[in-house]
Design brief:
The protein is an alpha+beta fold. The chain is built from 1 helix and 4 strands; from the N terminus they run ββββα. A 4-stranded antiparallel β-sheet has the order 1-2-3-4. The model has no long low-confidence stretch (mean pLDDT 90).
Length: 64
Amino acid sequence: MEVQWRKSSKSSNAEGSDCLELAVHEGEILMRESDNPNVVIRTTRAKLRAFLGGAKEGEFDDLA
């Protein structure tokens, strides 16, 4: 089965090279940078949910 990568409509350039891509594969959440697609981070839905919750609350704003 081929992995179906998704990227945000908020990607910062026309080539889409300034974005993160996410996919679901065999129950895991996969994440990669579009300009370095061979490096893949694997996580769970629960961990991604916790991270996104923190991001929505501004916990990582100092990194952007």
